[in-house]
């Protein structure tokens, strides 16, 4: 095999593409030929240098330049447009006043009784707003008063019931006490008598207004206590 | 490669994001191809841009039956580089090869600095300078095979020559590259020896 033939087979030999017989022939030549051995070493070195070479990084703006040159400036999507539009408003110094304005407006609309879905011409008159706001305010105050009154009534009724149910048991418990003074319960403390009288007075009122209430413990209420017993 | 075709179809349908996708995949490769041919970053950037403009304009002419999109892209880039080489031949002839070699010799020795990546950079520059010495035919064959890892069939499609010619060019290119590298190292060796006290 000549030197020229070895040169022509150098790439195939280094890439392992030669069949075994040809490969052994080349290797036999390389063993005996220093010049070809050196040449093969140089080519191997060049090949290794190429394979080890890393890609060169293009400039980061190259893609943008190509995009500009081909499709021009990209059209922003509607989401990007909305974000770009809202970006100044999302700053705290702008967002807070906007939020307060919206909050105040919603209060005014609510107080004025405006229905934004079916606005009429008279709804735009400030006098209408004031009149409705005044009405709404009075209605609200009336509702609050009524609610408080109802609540007080319920609490009073519950407390009276509790007292009336607890009284017989209290008397039964007090009766067996040996240290009780003579005269029994009729000679009790004035506070007890006052309380019993108050209960009677309330119960009488309740009996007039509510016919279901008078019987407690299978006894008519009027037989237990009455207005005449108030001291 | 199916991904390339999908991007291509979407791109032809007018979807700009698909074109962005193709660019993000291939800009680096084409830039490296251009850089290996020219050896200058700014020139490689301009050439990459020109190649992709050409690709964008002729996207509809791509025929999947004749090869992959990557091969077609490389072929268009290669043809553009050849045109560019012919256009700028006179400009290059004003520069002397020996001047370049002198500048290489005057560079500081790789062993002088403690930083390893400088040596790596030196090797890269050396390879690039050696590639610049090759004729365009041999250079493109070596670059496509050994730097871009294209197989013989793909290179034959890109260059438009038979596979036998591709193998021959690659072999001759490697031999020539080895000689140039050896000569450059031989020139640098005495210079380094002379710089030592």
How would you summarize the topology of this molecule?
The complex is a heterodimer of chains A (about 230) and B (about 200).
Chain A: H1 3-8, H2 10-14, H3 20-32, H4 34-52, H5 62-70, H6 78-86, H7 92-112, H8 126-174, H9 190-209, E1 215-216, E2 219-220, H10 221-224
Antiparallel strand pairs in A: 1-2
Helix pairs in contact in A: 3-4, 7-8
Chain B: H1 2-12, H2 16-38, H3 41-57, H4 69-87, H5 89-93, H6 97-106, H7 116-133, H8 136-147, H9 152-159, H10 163-195
Uncertain spans of chain A, ≥5 residues at pLDDT below 50?
A: 179-190, 211-231
Our count of helices of chain A gives 10
Radius of gyration of chain B: 19 Å
Please provide the count of β strands of chain A: 2
CATH T-level topology of the largest domain in chain B: Arc Repressor Mutant, subunit A
Structural class of chain B: mainly alpha
Biggest sheet record of chain B: none
Rg measurement of chain A, Å: 52 Å
Question: What does it look like?
Answer:
- The complex is a heterodimer of chains A (231) and B (197).
- Chain A has 231 residues and is mostly helical.
- Helix content of chain A is 67%, strand content 2%.
- In chain A, β1 (215-216) and β2 (219-220) form a beta hairpin.
- In chain A, α3 (20-32) crosses α4 (34-52).
- The longest helix of chain A is centred in the middle third of the chain and has 49 residues, at 126-174.
- Chain A is elongated, with a radius of gyration of 52 Å.
- In chain B, α3 crosses α4 (69-87).
- Chain B starts with a helix and ends with a helix.
- Classes of the chains: A mainly alpha (231), B mainly alpha (197).
- The A-B interface holds A 7-8, 10-12, 39, 42-43, 45-47, 49-59, 62-63, 65-67, 69-71, 74-75 and B 16, 19-20, 23-24, 27-29, 31-32, 35, 41, 44-45, 48-49, 52-53, 56, 123-124, 126-127, 130, 142, 146-147, 167-168, 170-171, 174-175, 177-179, 181-182.
């Amino acid at each position: 095999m000549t030197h020229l033939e070895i040169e022509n087979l150098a790439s195939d030999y280094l890439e392992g593409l030669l069949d075994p017989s040809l490969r052994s022939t080349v290797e036999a030549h390389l063993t005996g030929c220093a010049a070809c051995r050196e040449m093969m070493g140089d080519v191997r070195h060049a090949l290794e240098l190429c394979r080890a070479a890393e890609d060169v990084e293009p400039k980061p703006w190259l893609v943008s330049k190509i995009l500009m040159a081909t499709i021009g400036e990209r059209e922003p999507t509607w989401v990007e447009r909305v974000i770009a539009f809202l970006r100044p408003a999302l700053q705290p110094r702008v967002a807070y006043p906007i939020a307060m304005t919206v909050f105040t407006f919603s209060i005014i609309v609510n107080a004025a009784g405006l229905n934004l879905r079916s606005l009429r011409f008279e709804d735009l008159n400030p006098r209408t707003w004031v009149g409705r706001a005044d009405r709404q305010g009075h209605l609200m105050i009336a509702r609050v008063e009524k609610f408080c009154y109802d609540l007080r009534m319920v609490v009073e009724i519950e407390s009276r019931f509790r007292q009336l149910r607890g009284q017989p048991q209290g008397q039964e418990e007090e009766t067996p006490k040996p240290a009780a003074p003579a005269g029994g319960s009729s000679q009790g403390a004035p506070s007890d008598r006052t309380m019993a009288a108050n209960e009677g007075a309330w119960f009488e009122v309740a009996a007039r207004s509510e016919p279901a209430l008078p019987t407690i413990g299978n006894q008519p209420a009027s037989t237990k206590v009455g207005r005449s017993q108030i001291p | 490669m199916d991904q390339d075709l999908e991007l291509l179809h979407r791109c032809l349908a007018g979807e700009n994001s698909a074109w962005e996708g193709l660019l993000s995949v291939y800009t680096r490769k084409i830039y490296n191809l251009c850089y290996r041919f020219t050896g200058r970053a700014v020139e490689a950037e301009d050439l990459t841009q020109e190649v992709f403009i050409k690709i964008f304009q002729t996207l509809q002419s791509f025929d999947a039956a004749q090869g992959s999109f990557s091969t077609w892209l490389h072929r268009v880039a290669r043809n553009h580089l050849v045109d560019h080489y012919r256009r700028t031949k006179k400009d290059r002839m004003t520069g002397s090869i020996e001047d370049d070699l002198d500048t290489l010799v005057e560079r500081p020795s790789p062993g002088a600095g403690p930083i390893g990546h400088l040596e790596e950079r030196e090797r890269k520059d050396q390879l690039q300078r050696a590639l610049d010495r090759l004729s365009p035919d041999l250079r493109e064959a070596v670059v496509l095979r050994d730097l871009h890892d294209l197989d013989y069939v793909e290179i034959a499609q890109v260059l438009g020559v038979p596979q036998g010619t591709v193998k021959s060019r690659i072999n001759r290119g490697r031999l020539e590259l080895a000689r140039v590298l050896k000569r450059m190292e031989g020139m640098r060796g005495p210079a380094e020896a002379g710089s030592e006290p």
